[in-house]
Write a structure and sequence with these properties.
Layout lengths: L3 H22 L3 H28 L3 H21 L7 H20 L5 H22 L15 H12 L1
Amino acid sequence: MRSTSDTVAATGLAIGGAFGLAGTFVASAPLRETLWAIDGVALVVATALLTMKYQRLGSDCVAAGFLTFLAGESLLLAGNAAGLEASVPSYVAGISLWAAALFLISAANTFALWMRLTGLIAATLFVVTVAMVLWGAPLLPTSAPLPAAGCPFLVLTFVGWI
């Protein structure tokens, strides 16, 4: 039987995945910022609960991964209201931590192989995006193919975690 915290975490992942993906593809800045604000709060709550769950289960690597994801999402949430161009530094920091989190969570055998693979693909795409920005590529959070290509893999990973 699912606990209340499991239900809240699953709901947060679902809201975060849906609103985050939607925000990546909308043209309106106010709508995008609103969707991403809801996404960010939902994911912070979900990953805080998942950190506690996996810490209690003794899965330190997974718990640390969810805690790292929470830190990354907080950076993304903090830069959101600044607009696309101004949010790039916090975005790059946030997806760097997302990548680290996904590597930590995927390193353990806690989740099914397909979830670990989608997490690793997303993490790799985020690392490539970070490297490109650090080396001068003018990428925004909505740029395609990167970083936008990493988002569907991240959402697929969320589906597995749910």
